[in-house]
Design brief:
Elements (H helix, E strand, L loop, with lengths): L2 E2 L13 E7 L21 H15 L7 E4 L3 H14 L6 E2 L15 H6 L7 H6 L10 H22 L3 E6 L1 H11 L6 H9 L8 E6 L4 E6 L1
Parallel strand pairs: 1-7, 2-5, 3-4, 3-5
Antiparallel strand pairs: 2-6, 6-7
Length: about 220
């Protein structure tokens, strides 16, 4: 289980700590203006590629410099990972990790106009009934967050074991929301998500940085 330090703001140097930089993908080429979810074939726009390259430059300047890039299997995340990987000039190939994939949602293919009309409440059973879908066949926000946090724990444990002190993970907006809720001591629930996104949603190629100590405890955050 992922743990918090008693003092989340402590920043004592530790050569065995590990930074995980969680990056949302760049802007997506979406001419049909649909909620793409896990639909295949949605890559980055030119602007999205520029955003990803800029994120790579910013990450390259960090100390310690990331030594590993991990990506969601979605094309937009993999293209973001590739741009960052090139800026970091890493020999280690990009690893693809299902555990940081986009949420599985019955709303895939719905128009952005429709999604805005329901306030992007894609985890609301009543909203799913409106499109004759059953949320039981898909992930709740809680289930998605649990999957992601378990994967984050595995990434941290492996990095500590391999003495890799900084990792980049390219992923998706709601994944970032769930991680940020957890990192600030909040239970990642559907209600907490709804409240969080009212004050702003993670932007394209935004970076959520988390530092874990040698025991796997979260000791520092930055975003």
């Amino acid at each position: 289980e992922l743990k918090h330090s008693d003092n989340i703001s402590e920043a004592v140097g530790d050569s065995r700590s590990v930074w995980v930089h969680v990056v949302r993908h760049g802007e997506v080429h979406n001419p049909q203006k649909v909620f793409y979810g896990r639909l295949p074939g949605f890559g980055l726009t030119l602007q999205g590629k520029t955003q990803a390259a800029a994120a790579g430059e910013a990450l390259k300047a960090k100390e310690p410099k990331p030594r590993l890039v991990i990506s969601s299997p979605m094309l937009r995340a993999k293209e973001t990972a590739q741009a960052i990987h090139e800026k970091l000039e890493l020999k280690q190939q990009i690893l693809v990790e299902d555990g940081v994939n986009e949420v599985s949602s019955p709303f895939e293919g719905q128009t952005l106009e429709y999604m805005a009309s329901i306030g992007w409440e894609l985890y609301d059973p009543e909203k799913a009934m409106n499109i004759e879908a059953d949320l039981k066949d898909h992930e709740t926000f809680e289930k998605m967050s649990d999957r992601v946090l378990k994967t984050l724990h595995q990434i941290v444990a492996k990095a500590l074991k391999d003495q890799v002190n900084a990792v980049v993970v390219t992923t998706h907006g709601d994944v970032c929301v769930g991680i940020r809720l957890w990192a600030t001591g909040n239970e990642p629930t559907r209600r907490a998500r709804s409240d969080a996104i009212k004050s702003g949603y993670p932007g394209y190629c935004c970076v959520t940085s988390l530092r874990f100590d040698a025991d796997g405890k979260l000791v520092e955050t930055d975003w």
